[in-house]
């Protein structure tokens, strides 16, 4: 029987050159080649996420940096610090397969925060963080939940110590829920810092819960990871089906490795992500995407991020894979007649209008996207956001959520729901395609030289 899994999207706000905030999706978000977005994943985060297929989602590429192993006695001592044991267990619970985070905890990359805000009996506490320059996992607790009450910690505003808004991508679980036995629930948020938005000395966050705004500010102890990043030049080119992706360098830090480059402008296809890209060490261990990953490929940039073997000290690392998501540049429009609930134009026949509904004066459109590859479990942000009607009137489609469809244990399709901005529109409506499941294939293997 087919089952469904609900995925939530977090807001990603980026500053443009004129200081306007743009909504982008991480990681959604996932391995890919396009602009950053944030895909919210459930607690177990079995989904690939990434920060989005990289056109909007980027892969997390992480390499070993140096050997900084510590004794088991030191790792055990961390848990003896008041408040640390619960923090450690929360991260181990939410990221059971993330060896990078487990290694970071065992090596002291853990900062206790313990700052709170409380309104009407509900208390929000940031317990602590694990962070480096590019990635942060923040653990929080909600106390005072009513039995059965579901609380969503998603629509978050991030600021630095001066109050400046930060353009970050982040992923969260969909919600936490109170029970008769547990009125307090602990969960985590994963945050990605692009190179243009470095980790601040002081960080603030605010989120609306119930009918109040909860705001906390906390310092970040950069001494924990100061100087622990290096850049390795690569200058390699991956050519697949006539499309060229130039890999310029690897940036390595304790929590992730970023592979950076660009897609050549002469390419005839838009590249939306690297489907099975991995880092493999000399022992054969694979270092794939973190639970949440991101990327960006604006202006043909290519950015992939992965888990890090930093604390394992391998002698060699390799960037490997065999397929990318790509669509002809001339087929990047989705034209829809919402009155007739039909597709007028699309890259191919894999997408259909599943539903159009109206509620409280708002129009919602749900698209069903079939997947031809059973190993493509990314989760797509189908539309870029803006659209134009037949008369030239502009509107905006806001992503509301994605349902993942499985059959026989295999990921078969997804349904993406969008809210259209209010207005009287002349049919049909034309949207830009943001990510799409078409593919190009060719195996590749690039060595990342660690002896430089």
Automatic annotation (TrEMBL):
Key word Kinase present: no
Classification via InterPro entries: DUF4179, DUF5643
Segments crossing the lipid bilayer: 51-70
Keywords, sorted A to Z: Membrane, Transmembrane, Transmembrane helix
Domain of life: Bacteria
Keyword Cytoplasm in record: no
Record-annotated DUF4179 domain positions: 49-143
DUF5643 domain span: 230-339
Family annotation (Pfam families): DUF4179 (PF13786), DUF5643 (PF18705)
Descriptive protein name: DUF4179 domain-containing protein
Organism in which the protein naturally occurs: Cohnella hashimotonis
